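Summary for the steering committee. The consortium agreed at its last meeting that each partner would contribute one worked example illustrating the joint modelling workflow. Our contribution is presented below. We chose a case with several input lines so that the handling of multiple components could be demonstrated. No manual editing was applied between input and output; the record is shown as generated.
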Amino acid sequence: MAEFAVELRDVVKTFPNPGGGEVHAVDHVTLKIEQGEFFSLLGPSGCGKTTSLRMIAGFEWPTEGVVYIDGKAMGRTPPFLRPVNTVFQNYALFQHMTIFQNVAFGLEMEKASTDDINRRVGAALEMVQLRGMDKRKPKQLSGGQQQRIALARALVKRPAVLLLDEPLGALDLKLRKEMQLELKALQHQVGITFIYVTHDQEEALTMSNRIAVMEKGKALQIGKPEEIYERPNCRFVADFIGESNFLTGTIKELAHDSVSVILNELVAEIVGIPIGTLRTGQSVIISIRPEKIRIAEQQNFTNNALNGVVKSVTYIGSETRILVNIDGVELAVWEQNRISTLNLQAYYSEGQNITVHLFPENTLVLPAD
Amino acid sequence: MNPHRRHPLVIIATLLVYFFLYIPVIILVLYSFNRSRTNVLFEGVISNFGPIEMEGSNVVQSPCGPFHWFCELSKNRDVLHAAQNTLTIAIISTIISTVIGTLAAFALARYQFRMRTFSEVSLYIPVVIPEIVMGIGILILFSQLFTMLNQTMNMSGDNRLSLGLSTVILSHIAFSIPFVTLVVRARLQGFDISYEEAAMDLGANEVVTFMRVTLPMIMPGVLAGALLAFTLSLDDFVITFFTTGPGATTLPIYVYGLLRRIITPQVNALSAVWILLVLVVVFALQRLQSRQT
Amino acid sequence: MIRRLREKKSLQGNLLISPTMIFMVGMLVIPLLLTAVVSFGRRAPDGDVIFTFSLDNYARLSGLRTNCEDGSRLCFDPIYAQILWRSISLAFNTTVLVILLAYPLAYFIARAPAKRRNTYLFLVLVPMWTNFVIRVYAWLMILRTQGVLNNFLGSLAGLLNLHFTPLEMIYTPGAVLVGMVYEFLPFMILPIYTSIEKIDNSLFEAAADLGANPIRTLRRITLPLSMPGMVAGTILVFVPVMGTFIVSDLLGGRQVILVGNLIQNQFLIARDPTFGSAASLVLMVLTLIVTFIYTRKFGFGEEIVSA
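What follows is the complete predicted structure of the assembly.
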């Protein structure tokens, strides 16, 4: 077995633009996906995640760069000669075949024996808990059931890598959450590499071992969920994953693990953690997540304290979300409701003067892009 | 809420038009039972069964009774031969034009290629020019071609190439292709290509994908195109008229020939049989279709 | 080899279209070109073609003659222009009448409950499934001097004790018109039906809600939205009528000569393929021009692909 299940080396994919010129759907992307990991490609529509997946599957060929599967360069190998299988966004179940025939199709292509086919199809259906649906047609199944058949159809071939293209997109919220856990458990059980494409960052965070965040054809950041969330390396990633407050400023002083920034929007100085290579005097963006801001009872902090006025209070149940107006700049602050209260006004009310504290360890200073 | 559907004017107009559409058909079928050989006035129905007896130009007795003309029809070798020709031509040209037209539909729906504009235009032309123009053109082509070939290859007598079944079939294929292409193409445009990708992903190469996945899924469209081609061929008069030769008469041509000579109720009997056959086939197809869904 | 085929998409496209191209070029393009070539030729004594370049046939079609009866150098014989005009006006009249008759029926079917629609459509199509020539024959039977219609009127007159002379209906332009309208009615019903059927019911409700009475709704909503159907139907009617010869032959006898009859006559009886080709070409060009102007103004009606 090769070191990596799938590798993309400096892959570029361009399409001709209808208006003239070219569109860089995938722009110099390098990925190294480990054996047996659950790897997600995350980003907004048009970021290149689906195109990258399709190049692994073989439906598109890279304009530049090489796709490796299990160490072998794929070149222009067609999909039916690659050891990977895909679960499609719209399931693509063959409408004119029964469920059994659908799942058996891939095995037929391998010229497996009838006994073998029967056994393996049965096992696959069992695995997705849809035994007994053999003779039905896809149209007779619900969305969730169809999705699981699509999964069974791909997995029955025991591919080295399973590719999933936003498979849960068409399902309603509750079903989606159930399926996320099921998929994760399935991957654990079967042990093969899953490459998962989604635009839902919560989904990616829940299920993945590692995530690649993509935008406009580039892979902006690759790492474990907690790395992506806690230490985003640019504004886009900080904004796309979770929620974040943003401020801008210039670097005043730079040390190894801390940096002080003069803010633009406010008359204040902030201390934070430098992300990436920075230099003194550089324009930067400050990112701090709402749940990481503390509301201080009194002014007893030396730095990163800002005074403002409560603009609005929203009660979510588990959280209270407050918008604080600091000299015209609005910061979102989320606080967990640890203490049960039936009177929110007792704690925060509109127009109240308030001090917020930004912990330096949670204040990220990113290069302005 | 249908503001005008119940309006009496619309209903009257509708009934009148339906009446207009059916009167000729009804009269046609009715007169196939006409006693009179000259079939000008309706002289009543033949009521006696027995050997043929005539009274002037009326048949008063016949072994087939009122169905006399149908019996005559069944003995008419020319009609049967023409019917056979018509069917042969229709079947062969339908099969070939459906295959070719389906391929063309794929080409136009999915690919960019240099001959594209030219093919789109040439497929559109038969629809916007009168059939006679195309018929004349083909006639000229074949007559010039045959004259030339006959001379250079020194053919004579029966060996000479001339208009016949094959020329008719070729021309039928030519005018059917645009229609098949149109129908199948419309069907293809709604076709989700991920089905084909799924098949390839699971190990099927292009040919297997086409045969096991694509074709079954577009089959209704292909069949609709084939049906259209079949109907067009069966009913065609003008182009067949100019491309046919001795021995290759089709039913429409035969009827036309009859009409310019003597008109007996046999023609009506032929029409009645034709209508009946069409109805039977259509009902059978409906039954088949409803059983599928 | 298969590798190359797989990789070059345009090659695949070309391959798929090639059989069609062979047929269309061989049976359409080349014949049309040949027709043009022959039209510039001269007639050989045995009815064959002498390939040369001469405008004689076209001059003859235009009616310009140099051997005038009254002795003048140049005169104008309108005979062929008349034939052409007859064809055009027949095509035009047929189209107008067909639209007038087809519209109420199409409307009725389109607004009928969904279950019944197929039945109504089926009823429209059944007569059409009899043979073209047979249908014309039926009208011959009806319109003859001793035909069904005259018989019927005669008996009616007899009942009312009125004197009745049989109407001379057959072998007149009127008979040809009736035959043509009958032939092409379904070709207009189907497209109009399709486009009216596509109109969302809520549009009618909205119009009523805003105060439009049925006539206004028809004029301002239904008619404009059913235009694509009428346009498609017009092309399906106008073009064939321009080139027809059977209907005019059987129902019009020698009295009604259209361009189609002229062409047929030239090829089969007069044996002058050069003149016939010229007429054929003129017919084609004329039809294309009219169709072009028409579709420029009204579009192709391709919103409908009616089967």
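The longest helix of chain A spans residues 173-190. Chain A has a mean pLDDT of 90.
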